[in-house]
User: What shape does this take?
Amino acid sequence: MNNLTTREKAMAFGILLILIIFLVYFFGIRILNDNYEKYTEELKGLQDRKKFLDELKEENANTEKEIKLLNENIEKIELSFIDKLETEVIEQYLLAAFEKNECPYLSKVAVSDISMTPITMADGSTSPNSVLCRNVAISYATTDGFLPTQYNATPSNTGEDGRIDKDRNADMMKQIQDEINLRVKLYNDKATEEDLANDVSPDFEGYDGFIKTIKEIAKENPDCVKLVGIKAETKNGFMTLTATVQFFGAVLENRVSVDNNKGAYTWWSGATSFDTKGGLIGRPYVVWNKDSAWYLTVINKAEVDTFTDRPYAPYYINAYFTKLISCEGGMSIVTGGGIQALDSNKAEQKDDNSDDYTQVSN
Assistant: This one.
C-alpha cells in the first residue's frame, strides 16, 4: 500500500468508497425502501380498517338508536292493552267510580268475553299472540224522589240484636206518609202547578253522577278502556241507567314492556281486611258454614216463592218445589229452618201467631 502512488491511493479509496456506498444502499437504503413501501401499505390497510370500523361503530350506534326507538314503540303498543284482565278488579274499578260520584244504587253487573279474530302471520300461520276483550254492562237505578233510600243495608232494617227494628221501619213508613200528606195538602189548598213542581217534583238522584262517571271513564285511558254504549230506561217512577264498557288486554309470547301503571282496573286496590274464610259468593237456601257471616240465615222467601228457572232440575220438580216454598211455613220446612235474613245483618223471623222466634233445626 505504501508503494502506491498518491493517484493510485486516491483511486483505491474511491473504489472503496463506492463499494461502501453500494453496500450501504444494497443492505441499508434498499431494505429501508422496501420496508417503507411495506409499512406504507400496511398503514394504508390499517387506515382503511379503521375507517371501516368507525363506519361500523357509527352504524351500530344508529342501529342501537333504532332498536331503542323500536322497543319504545313496542312498549307503547303493548301498554295500550291491559296486562291482566281480572273480572273482580274490573268490577271493583267500575263500582268505585260510580259510587264516588254519588251513584250508588247498583242494579246489575253483567260480564262477558268478546271473541276476537286470531292474528294471522304473513306466512299464513296463526300468531301465538292474541287480543282479549272483556265486556261489562253495569246498571244503576236512580231514585224516584219519593221512597226512602237504602244503600249497602244502610240504614239497616235490624237493630244490634239482629231483630227487626220496628221504630226505624216505622220512621221510613212515616216518611212515605208525610210525602203523601204533603201532596194531599197541596191538592186541597189548590196549589198552582208551579208550587207543585217546586214542592213535590221528584228528584232522580243518581242521574248526574252517572253522566259524570261515564265521561271520566271515557277519558281515563281510551287506548284500553272504551265506553261503547249507554242506555237510559224508564221504569215505574224511576230510571235505570246502563253503561257498557269494554276492556282490552293482550296475550304476548315475548313481552317487552313491564306494566307499572297500577291502574285501578288492572290491580286490586280495594279493601283486603275482610275475612272471606266462609265464602262470600253465592247464596244457598240456608247457610250451615260456621265460618260464614251468614251462618244460620235463610234466604228471603220473597226471592224464591215465585217460579224461577232452574236449569239443573226438571220443570215439574221445579214447579212442585216453588209450590212448597209458597205455602205457609214452607221455607222453614224445605230448608230445615233458620233465621230469616232481610238484609246483610242476621234477623230472626217472628211468627205472626206466636211470641217465639223461629230457631234453626239442627
The beta strands are 106-114, 130-141, 225-234, 239-251, 297-298, 339-340. The first strand starts at residue 106 and ends at 114. Residues 341-362 have pLDDT under 50 and may be disordered.
